[in-house]
User: Fold this.
Amino acid sequence: MRLHRIELKNLNSLYGEQSVDLDGQLGDAPVFLILGPTGSGKSTLMDAIALALFGQTPRLSNARNEPDADARNVMSRGTGEAFARLEFSKKEEGARCRYRATWSCHRARKRADGDPQDPTRTLERLDSATGEWETLVSDKRAKFFQPELDRVLEGLTVKDFQRSMLLAQGEFAAFLKATETERAAILERLTNTSEYREIGARAAKRRS
Assistant:
């Protein structure tokens, strides 16, 4: 998976609409640094990626069954709506396909004092022939949006994301503490090491 663009609105300390064009602003830089004082929004960029892909963040997850852990709490104080959007691409049948995943949420009547409403999850695919975005799914119900996201993400889970792409504070050893099987599964999904496993198997067969 290759990330191309992050867009967000009213997440944590980042008020209003913000965007980071990873292609245009970073070019082919293999390594880059996100730098800023505490509270400037560095981790919020990672939150936006996790929200767009998984509907939760490493710091806030409904799985913890705590009121304060609701992912909707990333909405900036005093605002009535928020969204996180990620544009990414991945190889499918030899071609690179481009997708756009969005997590969006608002309070009742989009008022700052309204009750939080259920988030909407949207997944779009870019039609390379027309240059238009095709909506694959856009719904608040997991039974509709989850199968499409699972198919595109090819089994990548929020735990994989936490362990290999984002280690939140206090979880820096998460990837190292994972079992050998868990680490192998994560690395295989991220680096497509299945090709090398097949090469190894053929080499072993030829040697025997």
